[in-house]
Amino acid sequence: xxxxxxxxxxxxxxxxxxxxxxxxxxxxxxxxxxxxxxxxxxxxxxxxxxxxxxxxxxxxxxxxxxxxxxxxxxxxxxxxxxxxxxxxxxxxxxxxxxxxxxxxxxxxxxxxxxxxxxxxxxxxxxxxxxxxxxxxxxxxxxxxxxxxxxxxxxxxxxxxxxxxxxxxxxxxxxxxxxxxxxxxxxxxxxxxxxxxxxxxxxxxxxxxxxxxxxxxxxxxxxxxxxxxxxxxxxxxxxxxxxxxxxxxxxxxxxxxxxxxxxxxxxxxxxxxxxxxxxxxxxxxxxxxxxxxxxxxxxxxxxxxxxxxxxxxxxxxxxxxx
Length: 321
Hints:
This protein has 321 residues and is of the alpha/beta class. It is built from eleven helices and 15 strands. It comes from Actinomadura rubrisoli.
């Protein structure tokens, strides 16, 4: 990364609202679902001791890790493609229309005779007592259908899409694919195709409790094939079996352990802060590159912020190279 590029953070340039000049191509492998979202202003989940009817803002959207990232990436990248396995029901044309609407190239694979995956996201509201510890965005409850088509994306299906991966400047994948054997193998196949072609590999270490779902031996190989890893610092610490860092100093203390655990020289983009979104530490082996604030705070919409930030960081990273 040259000195001029490293002197400015991706939050300052290209920023979080898209780039002045859209460049590069991004190939996203991930999950596509129908998601019902609702927020409960003035209600905490801990207050609920009986059935409750709440009239509150609610909507259904095409979501999932691949679409969520791609929706923001189109503001930076000249071409964005999404590879995902989806179901075969009344939601299928809705999903395809949404990808066309946001300007994403559809590489969707339809699994005949299956339903599309559904996710429900509920977020509670600030504590009504007005106590300082009740401030903030509230708690998110995410209920995801376990047996969704995305868990059955296969190596052969990825290899059939290899030409698109080879043409891309970067491949983006995430840790949800690691949760099922078939999609885990597909993720590694996509990374192999990318590395053989010189396409850079970016990996987002989610879900944030992946350490409770998988042993480190199933997670670390995905980090080892990545050129850039995006992660909340507490998540990465737990995967490595280390104490959860509190504050910038302890996040820096985590860096030598990363260098020992993962071969190569990936660029680590480690989120940290009160909600693990306020700051980023960018690190490459034996070198602290920079630390920057993200601009996230109580007055910023949390949903989608991480994908906005990741899209700008990927564009910044590719431009710096």
